[in-house]
Fold:
Amino acid sequence: MISSTNLNILIYNTQSRLKAETARNYLGFLWWIIEPILNLAVYYVFIGLLLQRGDENYIYTLFIGLLTWKWIAKAITTSTGSIIAKNGLINQVYIPKYIFPVSEVLYSTWKYLIILIFLLLFFVAVGFGSSLYLIHLPPILLIFFLICLGGSLVSAAITPFVPDFKYLIPQLLQILFYGSGVIFDKGIVPKKYHYILELNPLFNCFEALKGVTIFKRSPNYNHLFPAFLIGLGLVYLGLWIIKRNDKVYPKIM
Amino acid sequence: MNDVVISIKNLGIRYKKRGSLVRGKKTQYYWALRGVNLEIKKGEVLGVIGVNGAGKSTLLKAMNQIIKPDEGEVINRGYSTALLSISAGFIGYLSGRENAILNGLLLGMSKGDITEKIEDIKALSEIGDFFEQPIYTYSSGMKSRLGFSVAYYTDPDVILVDEVISVGDRSFKEKSSRLMKERIKSDKTVVVVSHSMSLIKDLCTRVVVIDKKGIVDRLSVEEAIAKYNKL
Structure:
């Protein structure tokens, strides 16, 4: 399906993305850890300490939720222009265009996994983690990954044809962000509106994620299945569009 | 010697003119190439000449399988092609070595091939210790030396040349030009696009003139150049 040369290009491209950050900044790869920690510290100070919102678990659900959200949002945002950015290159050599968004996704995912390990260790230290529930984490992360990959492929595939799309993507992500329960707990929403939230497949994924990492709750796989299908569907759709237009992209840029 | 490497049949490639939904204009196209028929034979050095905008670069891209024809077809009988490009895909913060590997991969070399040839590439480029430094520390001449060296070791079945065959300062220009000419004059199949008639005369075994009415074939090198000079 993927030739060894293409696989090598993909790996090399992703490594070079990772290297960009370590090579260009003085603190190098420490930024992968410092940046999210600073980010969470801001929320901790304003929401956890100053506003005193939510119960004591709230700030931790916010941590895991925000990190996971940033992983997905950043992959999709950077993928959006990833084919266009290589305009010069793809006009000189043939490269399968899916390589560009997939590199962005692998790059974000790698960074996310590293910080996730730190966060989980921290959770264990404060007494949340339990291996009994964490075994559910890989399938949940897989679903997130599929959605992340699918969203990135689709947005990278469409944007060269409809450049306006890049203005729409941040708005769409914003809506999804507020609708996914990253920054609020289900409990603060009146019960009669829960069904609306549950219509959003991402909401159920975040519920499951918070459940297994903090609340010692097993996920409801029936609720996760639609998200899994949507993720797969997006991946398929994105690859299909890119494959169909593989030799059209150089012409329109 | 007369095996056909690539055959182009009734090739047409069009580009979209800028459109906008708001102004409600229908999408318009213009044809960069239309009705082009051409056969590239094994071992020949084919020169393609024509005025700016005649579609020469588009033709090279079609031969290189980068873009898909809108009409007709480009049939490649299983030969690897590569644009002898000297600027494709260098990344500033990667070292010369890493860029050479990446560029080699992009130009279709296998990882093993590159590992084998990487020291030769370094030697040919004559950039010495800079090879391990990030590319943003390079002068533009050093970048083109590196680009040339990678391209030189790529060695595809069909070399596509867009304008430039030599790069760098005087001494490197002489060396790169000599190497490329040797390569081109060996049994390589080469397609050269150039505005330099002396280069065309020097290298090519056959020349085609391309204009809005399609390709003019079956002229001798001198006739073709004379025709170009009248355009």
In short: Strands of chain B lie at 4-16, 29-41, 45-49, 71-76, 81-83, 158-162, 189-193, 206-211, 214-216. The first strand of chain B starts at residue 4 and ends at 16. Chain B has seven helices and nine strands.
